[in-house]
Write a structure and sequence with these properties.
The chain is mainly alpha-helical. The protein has 2 domains: 1-35; 37-118, no CATH class. It is built from 3 helices and 2 strands; from the N terminus they run αββαα. It has helices at 2-29, 52-78, 89-116; strands at residues 38-40, 46-50. The chain has a two-stranded antiparallel sheet. The longest helix is centred in the first third of the chain and has 28 residues, at 2-29. It starts with a helix and ends with a helix.
Length: 118
């Protein structure tokens, strides 16, 4: 049974690595990495303006990932661990606030664009 769990673990690791590689190649291959920050205007037309809410979401998310990674490294340094460390309430609040700002900005941008006829 342990070998089956070990095989499933490596299969999932390979699957996630393949998905990450595909996404990375698609972004870097076509020079579209910067499009993560660009606005998408209502109606599907792509814009060249950078959305501030997307920038803050990416920055805060990467910062939270880094913080959680450091927490995991510190937990592993104290001795053997059997599970990932618990995410703190402050980290959850920061991520929830960042996502709320992103969705609020997107909602506001799309509602005002529809009202002005753009």
């Amino acid at each position: 049974m342990a070998t089956l769990a070990y095989a499933i673990m490596w299969f999932m690791f390979a699957w996630l690595a393949a998905l990450a590689a595909i996404v990375l190649l698609r972004l870097l291959g076509n020079g579209r990495l910067g499009e993560l920050l660009y606005t998408s205007k209502p109606g599907g037309a792509a814009g060249n303006d950078i959305d501030p809410e997307r920038v803050q979401l990416i920055v805060v998310s990467l910062g939270a990932i880094g913080y959680y990674f450091v927490q995991g490294i510190q937990a592993a340094a104290t001795g053997p661990i059997s599970s990932l460390p618990e995410a703190s309430a402050a980290l959850n609040a920061v991520l929830a606030g960042s996502n709320t700002l992103y969705l609020s900005g997107k909602l506001l941008r799309h509602s005002t664009a529809g009202a002005t006829g753009r």
